[in-house]
């Protein structure tokens, strides 16, 4: 019986150390930011996996993370529902850290989007100027087409007048030439 109690105490202590190790890593990431994935070729542009809910926190074993993180921290064990429920302070701390990391990631995302904003505004302004120039070219082309149509109409009227005059003169000339 005594041995069962020792095993239960040892397992309980190991479970708490596991929870504390997870909290320590989350605390580090909340303070320093979630690192980029370190691959064999260098740094990737993606962030390391981190739990975004208490349920994910309990299931988090670092298998989802890069080898560099697993090498640095080892592997975690899954945490049972009842185990975490026995440590409400740890559960509350996990919630706070997850919320802080999410907020930091959102702010970082907004900051990187904000870096692109002036560049995108300049591109939009440039595109608007190009559109204005093209619009002026189209208006100018329409005016030229309208002017050419008027010129064609004028030339057609002149041609018709010349033809009518020619027919009239030809008619007079044929009438006069008849013996």
Strand adjacency order, main sheet: 1-2
* Relative strand content: 5-15%
Helix content: over 70%
Largest sheet: 2 strands, antiparallel
- CA distance, first residue to last residue: 151 Å
Number of strands: 2
Q: Could you list the spans in which at least 5 consecutive residues all have pLDDT below 50? A: none
**Number of DSSP helical runs:** 5
List the helices and strands and how they pair.
Layout: H1 2-32, E1 36-39, E2 42-47, H2 54-59, H3 67-73, H4 81-85, H5 88-177
Antiparallel strand pairs: 1-2
Tell me what you see in this structure.
The structure is a single chain. By secondary structure, the protein is mainly alpha-helical. The protein has a domain at 2-117. 78% of the residues lie in helices and 6% in strands. It contains five helices and two strands. It has helices at residues 2-32, 54-59, 67-73, 81-85, 88-177; strands at residues 36-39, 42-47. The chain has a two-stranded antiparallel ribbon. Strand 1 (36-39) and strand 2 (42-47) form a beta hairpin. The mean pLDDT is 84.
Please tag this protein with its features.
179 residues; mainly alpha; 78% helix; rod-shaped
How is this structure best summarized?
The chain is mainly alpha-helical and 179 residues long.
């Amino acid at each position: 019986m005594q041995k069962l109690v020792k095993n239960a105490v040892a397992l309980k202590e190991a479970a708490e150390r596991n929870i504390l190790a997870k909290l320590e890593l989350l605390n580090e990431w909340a303070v320093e930011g979630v690192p980029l994935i370190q691959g064999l070729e260098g740094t990737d542009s993606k962030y390391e996996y981190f739990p975004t809910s208490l349920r994910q926190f309990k299931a988090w074993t670092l298998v989802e993370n890069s080898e560099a993180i697993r090498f640095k921290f080892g592997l975690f064990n899954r945490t049972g529902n009842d185990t975490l429920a026995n440590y409400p302070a740890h559960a509350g701390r996990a919630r706070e850290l997850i919320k802080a990391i999410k907020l930091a990631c959102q702010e970082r995302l907004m900051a990187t989007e904000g870096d692109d904003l002036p560049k995108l505004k300049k591109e939009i302004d440039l595109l608007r100027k190009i559109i204005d120039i093209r619009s002026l070219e189209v208006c100018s082309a329409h005016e030229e087409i309208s002017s050419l149509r008027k010129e064609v109409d004028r030339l057609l009227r002149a041609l018709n007048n010349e033809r009518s005059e020619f027919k009239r003169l030809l008619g007079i000339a044929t009438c006069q030439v008849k013996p």
